[in-house]
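User: I'm putting together a small comparison set for a docking exercise, and I want a reference complex before I start. The sequence is below, and the ligand is heme C. Could you produce the 3D structure with the ligand included, as structure tokens?
Assistant: Of course. I'll restate your input first, then give the structure tokens for the complex.
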Amino acid sequence: MHRMTLRRFLAAGLATATLASVFGVAIAQDAGTPAETLSVEEARAARSPFMRQNGMLLRDASRASGDEAVAAMTSLRDNYLRLPTLFPEGSHGDGSDALPAIWENWDAFVAIAESGAEAAQQAIDAAEAGDAAAYQEAVRAVSGTCAQCHQQFRS
Ligand code: HEC
């Protein structure tokens, strides 16, 4: 596929997926499903297994292609969309490495998670299109968001 064509294809796919996820949330709320709310204690306890799972998904994804790649990156994308709910305000301290900077710069924190979800979506689209180079590039972009967030928001 020509490079520009592929870029447009990825951009269109991403826009569709973003819309779908927005509608997904809207539908879930209309159906009376409450948005996920975790207590400070629940959130702190959930983070370690959550973050470790992300590391494993990323490792699996970096070696995968095709359906396996799509599956790993879909889980990672959904985790990234969920990530902010694991950080209710004030859930630092008590052995947690989360920094208070998270809530002082909440928009920046959420923006990193969103950019990771977008990169994961690009990886899904590239895996579905069978474009190995675009896939690896998108996986690297997701991987970059781990350090980007940790540098700013983890002690
Ligand atoms: C938007 C911010 C953000 C992103 C993105 C993020 N992390 Fe984290 N991560 C944190 C914070 C904050 C903590 C500290 C949580 C705590 O100690 O309560 C953490 C903790 C961790 C830990 C330590 C868990 C433990 O056992 O205590 C690991 C491992 C980790 N992250 C891996 C990853 C990997 C791998 C990625 C990328 C796939 C990633 N994280 C993406 C914010 C982020």
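Residues 1-7, 16-33 have pLDDT under 50 and may be disordered. Residues 44, 47-48, 51-52, 54-55, 58, 83, 96-98, 109, 112-113, 116, 145-146, 149-150, 153-154 surround heme C (CB under 6 Å).
User: Thanks, that's exactly what I needed.
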